[in-house]
Amino acid sequence: MSAAEDAAAVREREAAEDAAADRRREADEDGARTGLRAPLRRRRFRLLYTGQCLSRTGDFVFQVSLAGYAVTSGSPALLAYTLFGQATGTVLMLLAGGALADRFGARAVMLWADLARVLATAGVAAQVAAGGRSVWAIAACGLLLGLGDGAFEPAFTLAFTELLPKAELLAANSLQAIALRTAGIAGAALGGILLAAAGAAVSLGLGTAGFALALALVLLAGRWPVADRPASGDGLFKEATGGIRYVFSHAWLWVSIGSFGVSVALVVAPAKALLPLASADVLGGGASTYSLLVGSQAAGALLGGLLVGRLRRIPPGLLIFGGMAVVCGGFVVLGLSPSVIASVLVAALVGAVLSAATVAWAATLQSRVPGELIGRVSSVDWLISLGVSPLALVAVPHLLAYGAPATVLITAASVALVVSAATALVPAVRSLAWPAAPA
């Protein structure tokens, strides 16, 4: 081989090594951009996320405090009317909330929603502090709280897409899932401690403070740039129903949302009533056994939120609905297993996979729906999930007339398992892909 050929070979080898190094560096950069820390490098997202950690914790403190006060004061109607007003307000506002977010931007709607929730929770705390037991006043506060919730959720979903590139949405939703689970644990504990130590008024007031701090942090974040959204000229009602029209014009959306609705109606919602009864029948024991299952599921959900960002190699359709099939199969096992240890492990798996599936679904919706429609499409998604939950719970006592709790749970979960597995095979769902990381 000549000297010229040797030099050419060396140059080719060096070029190949340089190219391989570039590919490794790009992969490392993509991993850094799509890791859990990536969204937190952005100041506005950090402020928004911190606010939500505080408001979610405050929300759980408020719920626990109100429930504890209702029990200790002998006023169950106070709790029932508050929850009824909140659920009613949420359902009434969801479609309009999404349309308002798409029209005015996420920040404006979140500010007004948080203000409504501050006033509502402060109203309940004031009623309790004054010793008042006016169920109508409490119901009105619950209604205002629900209206704020219904406006906030689709706006918060939209805010992710306004603040972050598509490649960071999965990480951001993972962080949100972690915050929700952590807030549930911390808020429930803090609410119980404050209720016992300082009384219901102080404990409820802390819940109000959580929403107030979230409002302050959204204000501190300042206005953020959003894409121009030319006025459609349509009224708010027509704009609100535009989300429904968009969902039914895309097979992957209506199939996915419908499948989630089936899983919520048959498994996720009724399990709250069926699993305590089924575990008592199959495992024996009482509230302590069920508490162990709930704690295991919560711990699994926290783990699932932490790990889902590492599952980008799995196509989203398979991750979401293959995961939901695993969740439904887990509830079948919980209805059958006589082993406490096995049930605890399965409950942790159910929590982890359910958390991963819901995080992946949120990121998929945010990355594939046009920005000017995300609020309204998110509203439809929330409306289906929240709308079927009360109906499913109401149906549970009637179903128990035809079978034992474990039998009802196993049957419902088996049907939902088949639906979820079939959804993963639908071509429009199977072809879903993650957005590419930015160059």
List keywords for this structure.
2 domains, Growth Hormone, Chain: A, mainly alpha, single chain, 439 residues
Describe this structure in words.
With 439 residues, this protein is mainly α. The chain has two domains: 40-221, MFS general substrate transporter like domains (Growth Hormone, Chain: A, Up-down Bundle); 236-430, Growth Hormone, Chain: A. It has helices spanning 3-34, 43-72, 76-104, 106-129, 135-163, 169-198, 200-221, 236-248, 251-268, 271-283, 287-307, 316-336, 340-368, 374-399, 405-425, 427-430. Helix 9 runs parallel beside helix 12 and helix 12 (316-336) packs antiparallel against helix 15. The longest helix is centred in the first third of the chain and has 32 residues, at 3-34. The chain is globular and about 50 Å long. Mean pLDDT is 81; it is low at 18-32.
At a glance:
With 439 residues, this protein is an all-alpha fold.
Secondary-structure blueprint of this entry?
Blueprint: H1 3-34, H2 43-72, H3 76-104, H4 106-129, H5 135-163, H6 169-198, H7 200-221, H8 236-248, H9 251-268, H10 271-283, H11 287-307, H12 316-336, H13 340-368, H14 374-399, H15 405-425, H16 427-430
Helix pairs in contact: 2-3, 2-6, 2-7, 3-4, 3-5, 3-8, 3-14, 4-5, 4-7, 5-14, 6-7, 6-11, 6-13, 8-14, 9-12, 9-14, 9-15, 10-12, 10-15, 11-13, 12-13, 12-15
